[in-house]
Design a protein that fits this description.
- The chain is an alpha/beta fold.
- It has three domains: about 5-105, Rossmann fold (3-Layer(aba) Sandwich), CATH 3.40.50; about 115-135 and about 220-340, 2-Layer Sandwich (D-amino Acid Aminotransferase, Chain A, domain 1); about 140-215.
- About 30% of the residues lie in helices and about 25% in strands.
- The chain has 13 helices and 15 strands.
- It has helices spanning about 15-25, 45-50, 65-75, 90-95, 95-100, 110-120, 120-130, 145-155, 185-190, 200-205, 260-270, 305-310, 315-325; strands at about 5-10, 30-40, 55, 80, 105, 140, 165, 175-180, 215, 225-230, 235-245, 250-255, 275-285, 290-295, 335-340.
- The protein has a six-stranded antiparallel beta sheet with strand order 14-13-10-11-12-15.
- The longest helix is centred in the last third of the chain and has 13 residues, at about 260-270.
- It is globular, with a radius of gyration of 21 Å.
- Pfam families: ATPgrasp_Ter, PylC-like_N.
- This is Carbamoyl phosphate synthase-like protein.
- It comes from Neomoorella humiferrea.
- One of its GO terms (molecular function) is metal ion binding.
- Keywords: ATP-binding, Nucleotide-binding.
């Protein structure tokens, strides 16, 4: 086959945009050209590299699919890797449309299962029904209104235990609030303010409809991010990373770890939700050291550079899977650590 591949990458205005571009350009088995796309041009690596940036609507907007398809046709795109969660279900619903134009939309194939996976609460509901996965489900409570919020918080141990209030759909930890009794001056000395009393949240949240949120137990232990390359429910490569230092929700220092429990759990989750291509799952340990599922990101994550440090270019292996039906490299250098720092670009 002709090994020239043109890849459209979305959300390139994110902090991982240049890292993803760099990973794609390092692929050796294919001659990769990158088409960058984002919802605006306020901040993007293309400003400094001189490449063209394609502006697209948000994934949930009506014109998203038409705009993306037009770019794919105009630019001769072969593969689309979406990097924003709100783009996944619309792309999954229109996979056949893109396929008719010779474009592979690298998203899970079943839009119904995908929608469940992208909803943090519905995903936990689904996983909780599986006996083999029960130990990986945190304690959590569904909400309808503020009365439910108080009942849920106290049921999970508040105020003696911290609990977490979070959105079902937000990305990158947006809208997540730690509920508890703050220590003296914690709100003045902590970068993120620390724990918030339940009464404060009640005052801040004006609406009574809280169906888009839920409450779960606070998990104080180690945090893990697991990158997976898979196809139709079968995991091909699984790379757990311990997130050793987290800054603003992003892993600044991570370490590739062989974790039997996580490997077994992730295989089952990939099968349960019939996931495909590059996906990511987040876990955090409870006070007893048991990992609990936080969320499923059925898209390209932001820290694939750590996998490359460990010997695996997930983009390259995804292309091998797409074009040859198999991966070629599974050898991970376990124990590898990756630190992420700002890299300056100039023009």
């Amino acid at each position: 086959m002709n090994n020239r591949v043109r890849i459209l990458l979305t959300a390139t205005g994110g902090l991982a945009g240049y890292s993803h571009y760099h990973l794609l350009k390092r692929i050796q088995a294919f001659q990769v050209e990158v088409v960058a796309a984002d919802i605006n041009n306020s901040f993007n690596y293309t400003t400094f590299t001189g490449e063209t940036l394609e502006i697209i609507p948000r994934g949930e907007e009506e014109g998203f699919i038409d705009a993306l398809l037009k770019i794919c046709i105009k630019k001769g795109v072969n593969v689309v890797f979406p990097c924003s969660s709100n783009e996944l279900v619309p792309l999954a619903r229109n996979r056949d449309l893109f396929k008719r134009h010779g474009v592979v939309a690298a998203v899970p194939h079943n839009p119904i299962e995908l929608a469940v996976a992208c909803d943090k609460l519905s995903a936990l509901d689904r996983v909780a029904q599986q006996p083999v996965l029960a130990n990986f489900v945190p304690r959590y409570c569904r909400l309808s209104n503020k009365v439910d919020l108080y009942h849920a918080a106290y049921k999970l141990g508040y105020p003696h235990e911290k609990v977490v209030f979070k959105s079902r759909f937000a990305q990158g930890g947006r809208g997540m609030i730690l509920l508890g009794k703050p220590t003296k001056d914690e709100w003045l000395s902590s970068k993120h303010g620390g724990a918030m009393p339940l009464e404060w949240l009640d005052l801040l949240v004006e609406k009574n409809d809280l169906a888009q949120y839920f409450v779960m137990e606070y998990l104080p232990g180690k945090e893990y991010s697991v990158d997976v390359l898979c196809y139709e429910g079968k995991a091909e490569i699984i790379i757990p990373r311990e997130r050793k230092v987290v800054v603003d929700g992003k892993a600044a220092v991570s370490r590739l770890v062989w974790h039997e429990g996580l490997l077994a759990c992730v295989r089952e989750l990939i099968k349960l939700f019939n996931l495909s291509y590059i996906v990511n799952l987040q876990f955090k340990e409870d006070k007893c050291g048991q990992p609990k599922l936080l969320e499923i990101n059925a898209r390209v994550p932001g820290t694939l550079a750590a996998d490359l440090a460990g010997g695996i270019n997930m983009f390259e292996e995804a292309l091998n899977l797409i074009y040859y039906g198999r991966v070629k490299n599974r050898e991970v250098r376990w124990g590898t650590e990756c630190g992420r720092f700002f890299q300056e670009l100039y023009r």
